[in-house]
Amino acid sequence: MNTRLNTFAVSPEIMQAWLACSDKVAESGLEKPLLELVKIRASQINHCANCLNMHTYEARQAGETEQRIALVAAWREAPCYTDRERAALAWTEQMTLIAEKGAPDDVYAALEAQFSKEEQVKLTMAIIVINGWNRLAVGFNLFDASRGWKA
Question: What pTM, to 2 d.p., does this model score?
Answer without folding.
Answer: 0.92
